From TrEMBL:
It holds the Pfam family PrsW-protease. GO terms for cellular component: plasma membrane. Keywords: Cell membrane, Hydrolase, Membrane, Metalloprotease, Protease, Transmembrane, Transmembrane helix. The lineage of its organism: Bacteria, Bacillati, Bacillota, Bacilli, Bacillales. This is Protease PrsW. It comes from Fictibacillus aquaticus.
Length: 221
């Protein structure tokens, strides 16, 4: 079991460390990052119960499951927890902080989800789990956090628009990811790898832009 836990959690910790250290100016307190990560771990339990209930009680189409029961539902709960545990906190004091906290929560969720998956299907699945769902959760978190970071230092209509983007853009991307996995079948990897390359390009671009936003924000102070 220890081997399963290590294989399940190690990719998430590596990705979290990567994005945490991408903050070029002022890294966040580790205590806050760990707390948000633990919230992500705990989120797995209500998500599993509620998604199971939806799937058992409702006869839903595959695209509804991909975009709403999984994509929007999961990303909304992540967004809600990041908003109330970090966004409103005094330590959230620069644009890149959104990426740190959203990624921490997403990777907490991915860690425990991965433990359950590898416990069921075997440690031999660890490589593909790290490459696809764990990385996917991290990158959805990056994109969510980028727009939360911008919203924190905006006002009025622009702030509301950025808050909406911080929820609905990662939810949409999560839904597309799920839909590809559900429909590609034998060509799954040929279909999903280009999408993951796009996600990494988009996520790293948001990391760069968030660091640049800090410079612009400070120059206005």
């Amino acid at each position: 079991m220890l081997a399963v836990i290590s294989a399940a959690v190690a990719p998430a910790i590596a990705l979290l460390s990567f994005f945490y250290l991408k903050d070029k100016y002022e890294t966040e307190p580790l205590s806050m990052v760990v707390r948000v990560y633990l919230f992500g771990l705990l989120l797995v339990f209500p998500v599993m119960v509620l998604q199971y209930g939806f799937e058992e009680e409702l006869h839903i189409a595959g695209w509804v499951k991909a975009f709403f029961v999984s994509g929007l539902f999961e990303e909304f709960l992540k967004w809600f927890l990041v908003f109330y545990s970090a966004y409103l906190h005094a330590e959230f004091n620069e644009p890149y902080d959104g990426i740190v906290y959203s990624t921490a929560l997403s990777l907490g969720f991915a860690s425990l989800e991965n433990v359950f998956y590898l416990s069921t299907y075997g440690i031999q699945e660890a490589f593909w789990r790290a490459l696809l769902p764990v990385s996917g959760h991290a990158l959805f978190g990056v994109i969510m956090g980028y727009y939360l970071g911008r919203a924190k230092f905006s006002r009025g209509k622009k702030q509301r628009m950025l808050l909406l983007l911080s929820l609905f853009l990662p939810a949409l991307l999560h839904g597309v990811y799920n839909y590809i996995l559900m429909t590609a079948q034998e060509d799954m990897f040929l279909a999903i790898i280009p999408f993951m390359v796009f996600l990494w390009w988009l996520g790293l671009r948001k990391v760069k832009l968030a660091n640049e936003k800090r410079v612009a924000y400070l120059s206005r102070q």
